[in-house]
Amino acid sequence: MSETGQQHPLTVYIWIWILLFVLSSFSYMVDYYNLQGYLRWSLILIFMLLKAGFIVAIFMHMKWERLALLGAIILPTAFLLILVGMMTLEADYTFLARDVFFVEQDGLLEGGNHHH
């Protein structure tokens, strides 16, 4: 009995490994050049998602899998990212609401019920 499976050229894996190395270098350059703010976090997240995508697609062989299996991996991840985005918006709202209703002025808290 011979085991049948997909054989992929070794060069594909080498090129992806090199690409992952380059993307990791870009991630480290973000720190090296001391980028700050939204640019820093956007670049870090972009490089992270690209690396994760290449690892899943090539090294976990998802590029060659059926669409149903891809949906089982990609759809839950997309829903989780949407949920995290919604929680981030809610956190900003809560933070801003605290700033509006619990502002300290002259040593006293404004808003809400408080007894002295």
Question: Would you mind describing this structure in some detail?
Answer:
By secondary structure, the protein is mainly α. The chain contains 3 helices and 2 strands. A two-stranded antiparallel ribbon has the order 1-2. Strand 1 (104-105) and strand 2 form a beta hairpin. The termini are far apart. The mean pLDDT is 81.
Question: What's the total helix number?
Answer: 3
How much helicity do the residues have? Answer: 55-70%
**Overall mean confidence score, pLDDT:** 81
Question: What structural class do helix, strand and pairing data support?
Answer: mainly alpha
Order of helices and strands: HHHEE
Most strands sheet? 2 strands, antiparallel
Keywords:
mainly alpha
